[in-house]
Protein 1
Amino acid sequence: MRYSIQGARVRYTLLALGWVAFALRAYHLDFQSLWRDEVDAITFATRAFPRLLATFTRPKENGPLYFLLLRPWITLTGDSEFSVRFFSLAWGVLAVPLAYALGRQWLSSRASMLGALLMAFSPYLVWYSQEARMYTLITFLTMLSLYLYVKALNTGRWLYWVAYVVATSFCLYTHILAALIIPLEIILFVFWWSRHRVRLKPWLVVMGCVTLPYIPLAIWEIPLLLSSYETGHPFYPLPEILKILFFAFSHGVSGAGRSWLLILLSVLFSFLFLAGVFLKGTGAWRERVTLLFYLFLPIVGVYLISLGMPIFTDRYLIYVAPAFYFILARGLAAVKLRSNAVFALCLALALALDGQSIWVQAHTRIKSDFRSTARYFALHHKPDDLVIFLMPYVRHTFEYYYRHTYHWADGPYTNAGLRERELATTLGKATEGYRSIWLVASEAELWDRRGLVKAWLEENGRLVEGREFARVKLYHYELK
Amino acid sequence: MARLRHILAAWWHKAELLSPLIFLMLVSFLLALLLSGGEDVVRASSLFQSPLPPPPLQEPTATPLPPVASPEPTATPPPTETPVPPLEPVTTALPPEATVAAPAETPPESSPSAPPPEASGEASEAGLTPETPEEPGAPEGSSPLIFNWGVFLNTVIITLAYIWICCGVCGLLGTPLTFVLLYVWGKRRLAQKLEESRETEPTPGRTAS
């Protein structure tokens, strides 16, 4: 009787947490304008079906499964900002109860619930639940893979093994770097050898099965990851990677904010992290070390790959965020064993700081604001004006918001040393026959860091107006 | 008196429970100061937008430029302070799609040949190439395994140095703290022992009866 009451309480709490997570993620879901990766996701998902299927075997395709899943969703709900982001939101919400289930494999019920609570309130996970990309899906799938893996090892039931193979294969086809989950699982098996050695045979079979669907990917993925291919990402040393991830997971993407707030947040989250690692509480040291493996192994993996091919971006490691929150939750639970007052203070502060970061994210234009740019352009341009895009890739984002016919040209790439004379020739040809030119500049430094295109327009024309939106600048010139 | 002693014992028990928390708080304060220094934090927050790799290299013959625009490759550096990658000759700097701009009223689909929509996404996700794989020239930037040992060793040394410094700071704070704790604990033990010995000693009244 007591057990069922306990179970019901857990279920109701999880349900409530799910609703809280949903509310936090649905609030201002379409406040930010779509940025280029999100528009690309729509483009990829809606391309011809055979082309979409071909991406499963084609080299250098990242995350084809996400686009395949997004396709019917777009067919069903349309390609509005709200609908495409809602798909990510759904996975982000589902990850919260799953966090409890996964946490229970290594933590007490209280610590697992606190972990789920921290995940629900995580500004970082809220941000990516509001982004039309595969990041919440990959977080959900890796958690599911780990949950099924531990369940299979503990119970030995074939149903869990089969489900594990399916979930892990889905991970591999959802993000290129999710492959790092397999070394983690192998190391966990070795680490828990004394408990799981009886499952060695099924484990070997299942690992073979997990490897099979990975072979088509591994053929191009592994040589690419081990190459020195120029990615455009800067190289980050390991301490800096850890620092970036610490702030991302604890603070989201809303920037540094006020310095005192940043220090308060750093003190609180470092304290909870250290408490989670070092304080004795419920559970043995092995569980703690398991969580540290879960958190750090993929990070070290990405760092080692980056030594040859810089690839680190915090969101590629989003799937280790649950481990971070589990450690914080364990820290909170350990603090509660010592002092209810300190526990309540820490929890209240953590939730308040998370809430503040979520609020900032939901009310500050952080992503490039092509929505406002296109709206302004639509109101002020004439039919035979020419639009120059700098850098050219942002045209697709612009065209998501401006779906009419217009004249356009790509800004020339000058970062490889294009000289002013050559640029003048190119731009002269591109603008021939036009009198009114619009320059849409976003992330322009990746294309023209010397500002030569703008300088040419200013030299050969007159600036009529200039508007600045978040990460987008719009200039209107009349050529002489 | 016994009540006071009971309260003090309870307080002591509480302090014993909280002492690791205080120690961890001190360490986390130092860690926070270490973490929140510098501008990296702001930079981290802007990482949500992926960088792009440079556009694909193009053979000089692919986009013939007017005679005025064909100097010797990399003979004269461009007028900029920005270092230019030596690999790319000047004549190859132009992406093919940038040279065309149709003045005629053409629909966007048929107007200047732009990179396919896949380009941006492939480029921005996991740092992959912006071209579709069918396009030639994609593997030019890649080479077999080059492990940057210099950077690796540098990172290992810096990480070890961080740990070393942290140990030093912990030692600096921990040593006096340990002595204080030992002193308090010793006093308490002494008081306990005295009390125990007083209790075990037979009282004269009892022996008489």
Note: Chain B touches chain A through 96 residues (CB under 8 Å).
Protein 2
Amino acid sequence: MTALRDEPDYRLCEDRPVRHTAAVQPHGCLLAFDPSLRLVAASANAASWLDRPPTLGVDLHEAIPGTLADRIAEAHARPELRPLNTTFRVALTPGVCPVHVHRNADGVLIAELLEPDHASAIELLTELHHATERLVQIDHTALALPDVARTMAQAVQAATGYDRVMVYRFLPDNSGEVVADERQDGMEAYLGLRYPEADIPKQARALYLASPMRSIHDASYQPAELRAAEGFSAASLDLGFATIRSVAPGHCDYLANMGVRASMSLSLVVGGRLWGLIACHHRTPKSMPIETWPLLRLMAEVASGRLAAMHEHGRFLDTVKGTQLTQLLTSRLNMTTSLCTALMQGSPNLLNLIDADGVVISYLGAVHRQGAAPATSEDHIRSALADRAQQTGKSVGDCLIQTQSGLGDGWDPELPGVLAIGFTDQADDYIAWYRRELTQTVRWAADPRKAVEVENGVPRLTPRGSYAAWEQSITGTSEAWQPREIESAGSIQKSLTDVVIRIHSLQEEVDRRTRDLQAFAYATSHDLRKPTQNISMRLSMLAEQLDQSSPEIKSSVEAALKGSLQLHDMIDGIDQVMQSTTGEFHSVPIDLNEVLTTVEELFAETIADQQVTIHRGALPIIEGDRGMILRVVGNLIDNAIKYRADEPPVIRVSAAYEQGVGGRIVVSDNGRGIDPDRVYEALHPFKRLTSDPAISGAGLGLAICQRIARRHGGRVFIDSVPGQGTTFTVTLTNS
Amino acid sequence: MSRRPRRLHILVIDDDPEFHEAISHAHKDLLSLSVITFQNDATLALEMLHSDTPEQMYQKPVDLVMLDLNMPGMDGHETLAEIRKHPKTKTLPVIVLSNSDLRDDVRGAYAGGATSYVIKPRTIEQLRQTVLQIDSFWSHSAVLPPESDPNRAE
């Protein structure tokens, strides 16, 4: 709920007396005794019950007639009636009168003497018992709130006979909404209406939480004021639990304006909070016999219990759903190398976890969006997360922000709802869910801005003359984030934080091992050179010395020499792989025409021998490391010639490049081609896809190309048809 | 400036006896007239180069050095620096013959004043080609190009 414009300050009403009204409704009279049973206050109408005015300031037995005094003293003395709250009937002047005796929070014993009633309490109790049973039977797992509330209202109306029974629910802003409205024909419907906070102000809500039931017998009553003994202030007497307590000024006018003469309300308390009320209205004076009050209170408790069960069940289902989704997402997180893929693609994804219109993951400088997600929002979220972390002293990875109304100036007004979590110690890394603006219409029972008026400098509730519903359109907010959704966001935050920490330490481990391996490969290739050179030198000397007299030995030595020369090539290859992986990288403009010419010169002899044709497409100037690009083109041409088919090789070289975007170098041939299943093996170091002894090489050419492409932000793609040829595409994305 | 082939005195500084043998073999195959002195310790090689009264008086001064880089103790780069520092040898041709093709080695050697950098040949045939080229080039050079030392004895 958004704030209303011209919102009245409800706090102005908070000093309105509710418990200390110093008066009672005149259908009963009230006697108050201090702990020593001295009569300290009595309502002005007490004489009508006692035959004579009670004597204030004296002991109970002196103050009032003997039978009543004895019964009160007896209740006072009975230890099993603690806390004291009991009813009995005594013959008094008007007849046999119900008497309610209780002790208030200050230890004052209060006796309320009521008018004799004629309704059969036994019949009523039976009805109320049935109604309570109906409440017990409500299936909270199958019904939603409107049905549960309607069943409650129906049961209470049937048992009590009030003209109208409503279930009224407090919303988070303390305004109220009618969620069930059972009424006699001809009465105006209140279902769905909203009432402003001031209608049931804070101190009244506090009393309703403590005392589960109150009743107004006849709203047009003239209050019977309390008279106090000397030294006692009637206004200090806490009447919070007195059944005939006179209500706050203005409230009766409020009821009268609705055409209500009698009312009763039962508190609905869920989880220690005032959830709402069962509010009963009657068009003529009415109250429930005092004997039924305990059962009415029990009914209210049962109803509260059903509501609690319904909410618990809803929360349980939500939690189960949330937990299941979180677990599924977490297991996907653990199986993937890409956080964004795990969380955004497939099912379940972040939008299944929390029903929103869009979601954004910002991680390691990359932003992935899905659905409606404003690009303008990123700075807002970053600074909100950073601020929260600073205010709370927590890591950004423990911070969660949520709002229904955007994050300030410049926020996209179409998506005012945002729920965002950090998951590293950087505010740059976050997940944010967005919700669209939700225009909702609230039907107020009356214009809520006129609920409070200031009269002679004193604020008071306006007893509203008009109850014409007043419609308000609420904009600028989204649907609220539910507690379950916030919980789910929190769970995914924990999982992500764990995963990120793990990825981080894994990355460090990988980096460390890579460095070790590189150092090892470097040392190995370097140390192998000398013995390899010794071997090939010796073998070549030996091969020359052997004459044709021992051809077998000679061919063995030549084979050994060939092997040792291959070993040289492999060591060179390792060095080149290392160079292309970790060597220096100088990005400069490179004319691919010039590169291809250099390569043609290098291969001039082979090109002539093997009748190779090289078709040159349009070759632009690209940017990259010159040595590396030369090596890539050289390796691809070398490859195309080596893996030739029977007909003379025809090689086409083309390229495209756009500054700041990237490009590609494409080399295609009419060679023997690569089996599609083995295409990616071709990119592995030392992977030769042929055992043809005529084809020399260490099997490192394409592995080197792949590494060089990676250094240029791209990769090598192989498109091959066995028997027809192969197209190698090297992409470059370096800007 | 003489065009007559000279008899070169080549000093090979290399700790690998295998390489010494290969070089001798190649020279023998080529019927080369060059005199070769092998030294497997760079420090001793420098002493010999810089001594005013060489112990081996019968030998003429060194005309050319073939230097390995990867040696225990004083390595090739340090040896090269010492050669270039000393007035007597600062213009002496030094041809690096190494197994290493590392950028740092190649650049370092040229920056340190190497006359040439050759990757050690893999076969005797390749070695013969290398030795022949070096021999024939330097034995026809009367005065060292490009910064010849006019004080140097022919």
Note: Residues 142-154 of chain B have pLDDT under 50 and may be disordered.
